[in-house]
Design brief:
The protein is mainly alpha-helical. It contains 4 helices and no strands. The chain has helices at residues 3-17, 28-40, 47-76, 80-96.
């Protein structure tokens, strides 16, 4: 151990053995001021957290909407001919049935 560490260790041991300082009651005026301020305090507004939650929810819903729209457009661009053939087949079969 370094000499500084020994000194620090000795100081910490003696500080741990020191008696705790006596506790004094707060002055009467302090207690009445704290209680008066507590009674007149404005209630906390919880709507800030609700609005922040709804804002994040709307952003997430918008992102989901954009992703699903982009996915829909990419999937439907290659199947346009198949959709037209299915509609024409349906019309043909509907016209043949009495």
């Amino acid at each position: 151990m370094k000499p500084i560490d020994k000194k620090l260790d000795r100081l910490l041991k003696t500080a741990a053995q020191a008696p705790p300082p006596p506790l004094e009651a707060p002055p009467f005026g302090l207690e009445t001021r704290v209680m008066a301020r507590w009674r007149t305090a404005q209630p906390e507004d919880d709507s800030v957290f609700v609005f922040a939650f709804f804002q994040r929810a709307m952003i997430a819903a918008g992102v989901a909407l954009l992703l699903s729209a982009a996915w829909s457009f990419t999937r439907s661009s290659g199947d346009a001919m198949a959709d037209e053939a299915a509609v024409s087949n349906y019309e043909l079969q509907a016209g043949l049935n009495p």
